[in-house]
Specification:
The complex is a heterodimer of chains A (297) and B (348). Chain A is mainly α. Chain A has helices spanning 3-34, 41-57, 63-86, 94-116, 127-130, 142-164, 166-176, 178-183, 188-213, 223-236, 241-261, 269-283; strands at residues 121-122, 132-135, 138-141, 216-217. In chain A, a hairpin with a 2-residue loop joins strand 2 (132-135) and strand 3 (138-141). In chain B, strands 1-2 form a two-stranded antiparallel ribbon. Classes of the chains: A mainly alpha (297), B mainly alpha (348).
Chain lengths: 297, 348
């Protein structure tokens, strides 16, 4: 393998990793606060791609307006998802919450099949993103550079929000302890909603860029990226935003490199992440930078 | 013999007579639906053993079913059919001539599924709650990916076609009855009480001297065994299988059944397996459209599944207990309803 192709694979790995990272943040935020795997997150991501698709392809909006609308609509979807599927079960046993999450995911997938049709659609990627740039003889799509940059910008905003704003402090407080936070005057429900909306917004950004990078979209497209992003969040240490980003990049790059170096294994690409998950959970269940949570009896 | 045993035997005999008449009189479409009902009883009850009685939230059932379905199919297919199927890549050598009758093939499928459960259970059963859910879901997907890629054994994405149809109402209801009786015995044995103790509180169960890992593994393997048998019957009934049949959708459908019936109730799982399977057929008009008089209402493909997933949400949000909760049908309850007062200690 020449150095040029190696860098091409690396660039691809980084941009795939950025997408995983964007989705993984949504998982990690929700898990941090509710201790719940939001199974429907991958489907929120799928819905965002369809919103953007309809904006451009059916309503013929300029791409930036369509993307903005898609992101806003996905935020609203996240709000209703939380209010409909999770808030009624706030005090229910955890298993009910988990089943509700699976049910919500199942419902979104089936709704999408009915509303958008089961056949794959081709995402209309705006021309400026698909242009090629040639660096030292390696032709790479502009999109490949665009994705990590956008990811880092959103990550920066998110970290600012969590570390330096009142809402961010409240979020961290709720993650530590719901009751104590509410005694201190934090509106726990409002914060949980906020977390869901932020997670959905980031998933929307990821979904739109995913649609541009892998332009065949279909109602089940969210399942695999969703599961893999969750795995990325676990690898990085669930509940930790930076961990989710590190895990996302790690998973994206290893996945691409695995296929690049061992093409015979490319059929097993989807299995690889799960093997990695099981290994991580057995060796270091708290992930790379996760904190240990003592179990109460 | 005890009264209850006699009553159970009588009802089994009635079931056999009913099957005999159904087999003679109903058309093949209705028989097929009843076959599916019985197979889903096997699958739902076995999944309930793992999820409802032991409290292990496992989503790997489709994977175990795939193992059973493929094993049974490959073992029962005659050599000529195998050659027809594997026209892209020839089948691996020893499998080509390997042939077993239906019953041993089913058991081999079930045992293989249980063995796979043993292999993945060793690492995965250390996990709890949602981690276990995602690891088992991942395992189900891994099985699917492996079966898509091992072309010399499973014929890859093309799947297996013209599997010889052996299963009929006797097979499916026979196995359904066997599954229900076996699992009911297991639940009421000391093992079953240990499983329920683990479900209620792992730490407390452990301090009472219950070996957590051993019991979880037992439940996981028995559940997988029956999932394998159910998968084998399903593949045999349908005649064709391919890896995409065993996606997580299948597991979600089973989950809907055990939630609707009540987590931890065999009776509930049986009832809801029948309800859901029959409803799947009855609601077919949602997908295909229907005609009332001169009015034609076009169907919307996939609407049926929306109804089912909405049903799952409604049950989870508003009827957490499902139809039966953890209650069971017993002869005592049925017969002693009017005989009061209760015996000492409040038990009937």
């Amino acid at each position: 393998m020449s150095l040029a192709t190696f860098f091409q694979h690396l660039a691809n790995g980084i941009s795939l990793g950025s997408l995983y990272a964007l989705i993984a943040i949504g998982y990690t935020l929700v898990y941090g606060i509710l201790r719940l795997i939001n199974f429907a997150h991958g489907d929120v991501f799928m819905m965002a791609t369809y919103f953007a698709f309809y904006g451009i392809a059916i309503f013929a909006l300029p791409w930036y307006i369509s993307f903005l609308l898609a992101i806003i609509l996905t935020g609203i979807l996240g709000y209703f998802l939380e209010a409909g599927a999770y808030r009624p079960l706030r005090n229910a046993p955890k298993i009910s919450l988990l089943i509700s999450a699976i049910g919500a995911s199942y419902l979104l997938e089936n709704l999408a099949t009915v509303l958008f049709g089961g056949r794959p659609k081709s995402f209309p990627t705006p021309k400026i993103f698909t242009d090629m740039v040639t660096i030292h003889g390696v032709a790479i799509q502009k999109l490949t550079f665009f994705i990590p940059v956008v990811t880092l910008i959103f990550l920066f905003f998110l970290l600012y929000l969590i570390n330096h704003t009142k809402s961010g402090i409240a979020m961290r407080a709720v993650a530590k302890d719901h009751e104590t936070a509410s005694i201190m005057g934090v509106n726990v429900n409002r914060i949980i909603t906020l977390v869901f909306v932020i997670g959905s917004l980031l998933a929307a950004v990821g979904g739109i860029m995913w649609g541009m990078k892998f332009p065949s979209i279909q109602p089940l497209m969210g399942v695999m990226p969703g599961l893999k992003a969750f795995i990325a969040a676990v690898i990085g240490g669930i509940g930790n935003v930076k961990g989710a980003v590190i895990g996302g990049f790690l998973l994206g790059i290893t996945e691409i490199m695995l296929i690049a170096f061992l093409p015979s294994l490319s059929g097993y690409r989807d299995a690889f992440a799960f093997v990695l998950l099981i290994v991580i959970l057995l060796i270091k269940p708290t992930g790379i930078i996760g904190e240990k949570i003592a179990e109460k009896v | 013999m005890k009264r209850n045993t006699i009553l159970t035997l009588i009802s089994l005999a009635i079931l056999a007579i009913a099957i005999y008449f159904i087999d003679q009189n109903l058309d093949s479409y209705k028989v097929r639906i009843l076959n599916l009902c019985a197979i889903y009883v096997i699958l739902a009850v076995s999944m309930n053993l793992i999820n409802g009685f032991t409290g292990l939230f496992s989503l790997g059932h489709a994977g175990f079913m795939a193992v059973g379905a493929y094993t049974t199919a490959i073992l029962t297919m005659p050599q000529a059919v195998k050659l027809q199927n594997f026209f892209m890549v020839p089948i691996a050598k020893p499998l080509e001539t390997l042939n077993l009758p239906f019953l041993p093939a089913l058991f081999v499928g079930g045992l293989l599924a249980a063995f796979v459960a043993f292999l993945i259970g060793a690492p995965v059963l250390r996990l709890k709650g949602d981690y276990l859910a995602i690891a088992t879901l991942g395992f189900g997907e891994i099985i699917r990916v492996i079966f898509t890629n091992t072309q010399t054994i499973t014929n890859g994405a093309l799947g297996l076609k013209s599997i010889p149809n052996t299963s009929n109402l006797w097979w499916t209801f026979g196995f359904a009855a066997f599954t229900v009786i076996f699992i009911a015995f297991l639940i009421n044995s000391s093992y079953g009480r240990a499983l329920k103790a683990i479900r209620e509180d792992e730490t407390a169960a452990q301090s009472m001297g219950i070996n957590l890992f051993k019991h979880k593994m037992l439940s996981f393997m028995v559940g997988a065994f029956f999932a394998g048998i159910g998968g084998g019957l399903l593949g045999n009934l349908l005649g064709t299988i391919d890896p995409n049949m065993f996606r997580f959708f299948l597991t979600y459908n089973l989950l809907l059944m055990i939630i609707l019936g009540g987590m931890g109730s065999i009776t509930g799982s049986i009832i809801s397996a029948f309800i859901i399977t029959i409803a799947t057929e009855v609601l077919r008009f949602l997908d295909d459209g229907m005609t009332i008089g001169s009015l034609t209402i076009p169907g919307i493909t996939g609407l049926r599944m929306v109804v089912f997933s909405a049903l799952l949400m409604i049950v989870v949000l508003f009827f957490t207990q499902g139809l039966m909760g953890t209650k069971e049908f017993t002869w005592n309850k049925l017969l002693n309803r009017s005989q009061k007062p209760l015996a000492k200690g409040g038990r009937s």
